[in-house]
Amino acid sequence: MDLESLNIFCIVAAELSITRAASRLGRVQSNVTTRIQQLEADVGVELFVRSGKRLSLSTAGERFLDYAKRLLALEEEARNVVTGGLDGGVLRMGCMESTAASRLPAVLAAYHARYPATRLEVSTGPSRQLLEQVRTGRLDCAFLALPPAAGDDASLADMGLVAEKAWLEELLLLAPTSEASADTPRAIRTRSLAAFAQGCSYRAIAEQLLGIPDSPGWQVQEMGSYHAMIACVAAGACVTVLPKSVLELAKVPTGLNTLPAGQVETCLLWRSGYKVPAFQNLQNQMKRV
């Protein structure tokens, strides 16, 4: 097993096609096929299920893909550390959708201006999933709102993680025009909440704020963007909780009711002992915010 074979495997897994993978890699198809077969012989299992010309990852292949990506990332990390960041390196960063929309653009633009050789890979997701991806090494760092179960230094230390405060977000409960008279979250009569999937810290806050765990009449509509949530609120179908910084960026119809929903810290999270130059440069950039 070598790094080149792992890279070829990851490309084939992404494309699920030897032809497309060979094109991306600049190799002949027979070479890609041989390298995959050699890798399967090395690990002792089939990594792909072959049905005619169609490929899909086997159960073992799905598990192996995560390890392959982590090994390749570790190689990048080692190279970045050994060279003192001269080659720029790669920084795999996760963040919440709200952070990506309202906070990160200015930070990343300034970072790129200072460190143009560093390749930034940014992905979004709910806080709990981001935390787990940092813990397991799939991400180098993440901007998130810490889940209650991991909200103290001792809990983070037990998981080998460190966090520092980045921003303080003011949360708002956004309700339809029909809720204009509601002056507290518990006075809301609409019984549908628009939110991200389980694992989102803001969703957990909203559920507690509205008393959803103690009220079986509530429904939660899972959505993938704040634009969709705001649109559904405007249509009178639901309520949602979101940062004020995000709401200020959106074109919100007049007449919607907004109520205070508390304040939450967005933290920068990383693994204890992670001192890659590309990440240290991000920490330095955050001090300038």
UniProtKB/TrEMBL annotation:
The keyword Transcription regulation applies. Pfam families: HTH_1, LysR_substrate. Keywords: DNA-binding, Transcription, Transcription regulation. The keyword Lipid metabolism does not apply. Residues 1-58 form the HTH lysR-type domain. PANTHER family: HTH-TYPE TRANSCRIPTIONAL REGULATOR, HTH-TYPE TRANSCRIPTIONAL REGULATOR GLTR. Belongs to the LysR transcriptional regulatory family. This is LysR substrate-binding domain-containing protein.
